[in-house]
Specification:
By secondary structure, this protein is of the alpha/beta class. Helix content is 43%, strand content 19%. The strands form two sheets. The chain has an eight-stranded mixed sheet with strand order 3-2-1-4-9-6-10-8, sandwiched between helices. Helix 2 links the parallel strand 2 and strand 3. The longest helix is centred in the C-terminal third of the chain and has 22 residues. The protein is globular, with a radius of gyration of 19 Å. The N and C termini lie far apart (49 Å).
Length: 276
């Protein structure tokens, strides 16, 4: 009925939790889980073997979109779900995805809520900023959406056949967005499934300030590069104003998570300077 593709690279600890949750799905329809290992050097292969899932390995890292495309090619089903290797999918998640696809036969891509889940100490927030990792909340009802995120996504194979695979030349950031924009330009419909939620995890040291800042900085650089490629990147002056606003927020609110926002903005600003 459905294939679940999990791209991964050097995150065996996170992957073990993800695969345990995927193997515990409460769904009568048959499904398969496919791990695409993008050149990992850790214990990823053993984690996949113990979980009893299909395992495909790249000899060297080729990028997350290359891993996703590999999963699409080997998947057995016409419905293909994508999740990141650092999520926890509750038992009802996959059933909600499949039921949603049946309820919206005209749609060709789907996404669901992505909730931030921190396991361990994390920077204090003043409550005015978004969580410092990818989340999605478009409400309590199904609705058509412009974009959803590949941490929690489902596509129909017919859409891949028509629009093509994910662009492997893109950096992480804009990677799934590019494909969804192409799909919509071809008349495809994207639907947000409110019942198909899962948790996006950060555990241990990864939940602390410095790792969150490093990840936000790199994400900012990648997203600025993608915006420039699309021709919609803001002027350098606008990026500098945003960076200054992040600094003001951090100081005025005494908000440590403002530093994560600032790191994201700093990444965008540095990439804008590099592009001049």
């Amino acid at each position: 009925m459905v294939s679940v593709v999990v791209p991964t690279h050097d995150r065996a600890g996170y992957l073990a939790v993800t695969l345990d949750s995927l193997n515990a799905q409460d769904i009568e329809a048959p499904y398969e889980v496919i791990v695409v290992d993008d050149g990992s050097r850790d214990a990823t292969a053993g984690v996949a073997r113990r979980a009893g899932v299909r395992y495909v390995r790249h000899d060297r890292p080729r990028g997350v979109n290359a891993a996703r495309n590999e999963g699409f090619r080997v998947a057995s089903s016409d419905l293909i779900a994508l999740v990141d290797d650092d999520v926890y999918a509750p038992p009802e998640w996959l059933r909600a995805m499949v039921d949603g696809a049946a309820a919206h036969p005209e749609a060709e891509a789907f996404g669901g809520p992505i909730r931030a889940r921190f396991e361990g100490p994390t920077p204090r927030s003043c409550g005015r900023e978004l969580p410092p990792i990818t989340t999605l909340d478009l409400g309590a009802e199904d609705r058509e959406a412009e974009l959803v995120w590949s941490a929690n996504m489902l596509v129909r194979r017919r859409a891949l056949d028509r629009v093509g695979e994910f662009d492997e030349t893109l950096p992480t950031g804009g990677d799934e967005e590019d494909w969804l924009r192409r799909l919509r330009a071809e008349g495809g419909k994207v639907v947000y499934l409110a019942a198909a939620g899962l948790d996006h995890r950060r555990a241990g040291a990864d939940a602390r300030l410095r790792p969150l800042m490093r990840a936000a900085y790199q994400r900012g650089r990648n997203l600025r590069a993608y915006d420039a490629r699309r021709g919609v990147a803001p002027a350098l002056g606008d990026e500098l104003l945003t960076l200054a606003g992040c600094g003001w927020h951090t100081l005025r609110r005494a908000c440590p998570q403002g530093l994560v926002m600032g790191a994201h903005s700093a990444g965008r600003t540095l990439e804008a300077v590099r592009q001049r």
